[in-house]
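Hi, here's the filled form for the chain we discussed.

Project: internal
Contact: R.S.
Residues: 389
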Amino acid sequence: MDVWELNLRHLRAVAMTVRLGNLKAVAKRINLSQPAVTQSLHRIEEYFGVQLFERRPEGMHPTEFAIVLSPRIEMALKQIGSNRVTSTQARAFLSLSKTGSYVAASSDVGISQPSLHRNVADLQSALNVQLVEPRGRGIALTPKGVSTARKLRLARLQLEAGFSEISSLLNKETGHISIGAMPLSRARLLPSVLVEFNKRHPNIIVSVVEGSHGELLEPMRDGHLDLIIGAIRETPIGKDLVQTSLFMDQPIVLGRKDHPLTKSIIAKNKCRHSEIVKLANYPWYIPGKDTPINEVWRALFNKVPVEIPKTPVICGSVMMIRQLLLETNGLTLLSPDQVAVELEAGWLVQICAVPEWMQREIGITYRAGWHPTPAQSYIIELLKLHSNQ
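And the returned structure, exactly as it came back:
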């Protein structure tokens, strides 16, 4: 369902009717005639095949469909920021921002290039900002253009959420949830959550996008991801994002089963200073400096102090690190959950435990002001439930 198929003025009439409950007052507020407001409501009802309002002597009484749709419309319109913006303009500009050229955008939305140019120009006029500028043989978004594209994407998400909630009320549930998954969440937590989620919501598609914190953050801000699961950052990540804790993870030092240190370090014991010195004599395979695991790893050696070990390969891929460990005397620091299969098979072993202060907080990151749908809320509920098991 393409949300831009609907007229934004018609959607505005729905939200305003829920708020005011009187067609005459709505017509005055949105600068339409009363018959035009009535026609707007009829078209939205016709589109969804539901009754949004009950016509009563005292006014317009919203049904459950209008009650779930109206807040989404309100939030979408707030993101758009102008009553002069149309759905056609929004669709055209978002396609241009995605494809990077008028030729590609014209093909993408199925309209002529002159029409696309006109829609983008009209949007610039409606918002009174320059959105695009020439760049070589193509175009580039101005800073205002980048910001506007993000707002329009977030507005689209709100409308899609409202449409999904109406489908759910009709027992025709549809929808899509996008989750950014950092390495730890991909091991056990997220798979078990998705199996259980699919039992209740078999018709909702869940996309899992793998990546590091840095790779996932901007897609989250742009609305391409609904939430991110992984290690929480202690450094500020911006007021536009919220982090909430799920559980504390205790990493361990790992090496291959016949690693030389298995004979000199007792795995169940925490690393003492003398043992940390031994750990520093071997190469390490560890994620980059911008990760929490790298920070606590460096702190482990700095507290002795001893020289930070060599890192011949800086890598966040558990699969690659596993193979490097199997073929060398290298070491790594990972959660037991990330290598549960390898530990159970005996390919890798715990060389030693690490101090409790090296725990890292695992949690959920999402946009400030995000209002999850019931299905998205169920994902969060399951993440909390499985985190405590």
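Let me know if anything looks off before we file it.
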